[in-house]
Amino acid sequence: MRINTFKNIILSALFITTFNIGFASETKEGGDEKEFDANEMIMHHVKDAYGMHIITLNEGKEDEHHISIPLPVILWTDNGLTTFMSSEFHHDYNGKVIVEKNGGRFVNVHEKIYQLNDGESIVSYDAEHHPTNAKMPLDFSITRNVFMMWVSVAVLLFIFFSAARSYRKSENNVPSGLGSFVEPLVVFVRDEIGKPMIGEHKYKKYMPYLLTVFFFIWINNIFGLIPIFNGANLSGNIAFTLTLAFITFVITTFSGNKNYWKHIFWMPGVPVPMKIFLMPIEIIGMFTKPISLMIRLFANITAGHIIILALYSLIFIFKTEFMGLVSVPFALFIGIIEIIVTAIQAYIFTVLSALYFGMATEEAHH
Amino acid sequence: MELIKPGFGLVFWTLITFLILLFILRKFAWKPILGAVSEREEGIKDALASAENARKEMENLTADNERILQEARAEREAMLKDARDMKNKIVSDAKDEAQAQASKMIEQAQLAIESEKKAAMAELKSHVAGLSLDIAEKVVRDELSNKDKQLKLVEDMLGEATLN
Description:
- The complex is a heterodimer of chains A (366) and B (164).
- With 366 residues, chain A is an alpha+beta fold.
- Chain A contains 9 helices and 9 strands.
- In chain A, the strands form 3 sheets. Chain A has a 4-stranded antiparallel β-sheet, with no helix packed on it. Chain A has a 3-stranded antiparallel β-sheet with strand order 4-3-9, with no helix packed on it.
- In chain A, helix 3 packs across helix 4 (178-198) and helix 4 packs across helix 5 (203-225).
- The longest helix of chain A has 47 residues, at 272-318.
- Chain A is globular, with a radius of gyration of 24 Å.
- With 164 residues, chain B is an all-alpha fold.
- Chain B has one domain (11-163).
């Protein structure tokens, strides 16, 4: 019964993914037919945005209408904290709508908020389309990625609180409901990641981090595939992967023991010239490990999004519905692969983090 | 290029959100779940170990029973053997004693017979001497007058009788 429900969820998620993500949100300017720009559409999807755009109705017509969830924009400017809702831009991200707040004029240029310099009332651009008369304030906005991150946190808390509660309720530690669903996953992280990578004696300390990072990445990978959230691409955003990789780096560095630092600065068992030669390589290695974590997750998830969107763009590039006969099966195929990738990438990030912790805490073997 | 420039705001919120999530989940989810799982695993391990112990104990008990039975059997065997030995000994002792008693009695009887015989012989001798004397006196009184000559003759005859 449960397996059936699960299968249905996956199938319907796939269905939504495949058929909705194609609603490109390219905007038509004026009444003229604007050439479809696949690159712009894809980048717009993959990047962060200030509002949760859901759908555009009557696109390109007089009564064009956007349905979206406005999100708060929080800026730290020279005049202090400035906040307003993203709906004040009226879905403009081409720097046309100017919002005046707290003595500053703000525009949205490709989902980046710029503050116009004093006295300016229109944005001017350089050759690479960067605003020349505006600067970027410190931006703490609740963008759609932040919003989706909090939704994912709420979902995670719900899942694991009810799982923990099901253990408390049972008399002999046998879980029920969600608890019995997540227990194999938790045990998997413990037995297949924590124990073998870090070692039987020390893994316990790192389990909370490994479990949290595993489920956090996984659920956000999955959310990235659900198009009703406008494909919020949180785990494919480099800021997100940078932060997680940074935390892994901090934990690795602070749990490094004498043996670990000795291997970096004075490699045992090799002649002295080799020791000197290896030192800079090992020091670079300290940083390349988390950087590889950052890039791997970012690139895998973003690439998946780009491939699916590019396949749908074919329909608009060739301007024929029949292209859908090619695009849809291919996108479905990639969509299924992406579902597997959500779990694999979460697993890889966690395994490698655990491996680095294991290396940092490994005792010298004689 | 926009794609690989990390936005400050998202880094900020991710860091805060993740750390809070980590803290909350560690306290309210991972601890109870992992605790319960390992507790259950310990429980299963203990149950298996105690089942194994019980099995071993059972085996020991059976072995003990077997051993005790064996011992009892051996003891019975020994007791029976003892009893048999005892019986044989008693019988042979009794036999020996009876033999000894009998031979002692026979010896005593022989001694008594010997002394009786000696006494009877001595009495017979003196009786015969007296009788012979009486007879001789009567014969000699009738036949002989010369007492001295006759006495000498009797004494010779008696001397001959003693020698015989």
